[in-house]
Amino acid sequence: xxxxxxxxxxxxxxxxxxxxxxxxxxxxSLVPRVPSTLVHRTEAVPxxxxxxxxxxxxxxGSPMPDVCGVEMCQALAQHGALGxxxxxxxxxxxxxxxxxxxxxxxxxxxxxxxxxxxxERFERIVDAGCRIVCLDTANGxxxxxxxxxxxxxxxxxxxxxxxxxxxxxxxFAWLEDLGVDAIRVGIAGGSVCETRTETGVYAPTxxxxxxxxxVRRHALIVADGGIRSPADMCKLLALGADCVMVGSAxxxxxxxxxxxxxxxxxxxxxxxxxxxxxxxxEFAGEDPEYxxxxxxxxxxxxxxxxxxxxYVAGLRSxxxxxxxxxxxxxxxxxxxxxxx
Length: 340
Known about the structure:
Blueprint: H1 12-15, E1 28-30, E2 48-50, E3 53-55, E4 59-61, H2 70-78, E5 82-83, H3 91-101, E6 109-112, H4 118-127, E7 132-135, H5 143-154, E8 160-166, H6 169-178, E9 182-185, H7 195-199, H8 205-213, E10 220-224, H9 230-239, E11 243-246, H10 248-251, E12 260-263, E13 266-272, H11 277-284, E14 295-299, H12 304-321, H13 327-333, E15 336-338
Parallel strand pairs: 4-5, 4-11, 6-7, 7-8, 8-9, 9-10, 10-11
Antiparallel strand pairs: 1-15, 2-3, 12-13, 13-14
């Protein structure tokens, strides 16, 4: 495959003629092709059945230490969304947080690893009331994940299983065949994820969602990574996602656990990737051997209600453009054009 010495390098398409062409958020745009019959955007109802819950907003808070704590999960549930409590804490603390969130809010979701104290932690969080379990791994296409899913299905307490992350149709189908209920789609798209720079592994989330939607039979698609605005959420849902998972969009809010910093008179909050130095150090109690997550700050945004309202308003408006009253109609009526 290497060109001869002194030869002009061939174009990538000539070297790899069968490579698929990926696309990102800015590469495509939604366009309406039919007249809308919605009198007002409030006629659009972007609800989704998510296991034991009916979310009125197809938005899930990422199980990151600086995104989802007790206050965030309660606030998201209050506004019809879902927060997932992170696993980067002791089993006692995670079980305590589940109880603090409370079953009355409907936010019964918590993250779980697939090694170490996996069995014990599962039993503890289920005893505390958790019924949505997120197997939180960087590479969802791994035999350890398969073993974890099989073990979970053997337990007496039925749970709704979220697994991932994956970025291709093949790995999505593999998880779906295992019986996973919802699959996180997207690798290395997050703002504090350094997988792309450290490993060379990356696929734009819109491209991955579209690819997975072509083979999906029953599992929900949770688009995860790179969402910067309501427009990004709208595009992912139109491409086939059932809901989106966000981190940085929520990390700057009052309810997020991260500390508030003041820099030159402006407020910010800390946001760290799950594989960042400080998160691994706090969780494992020693310096990590490998770092695949960044540590950053995000602008302070006020209360989470304002963020959720903005995303819901944008989605409903987009649905109105597409003459869609439900998310199913939105996906059916949506039309895209290439921007570049």
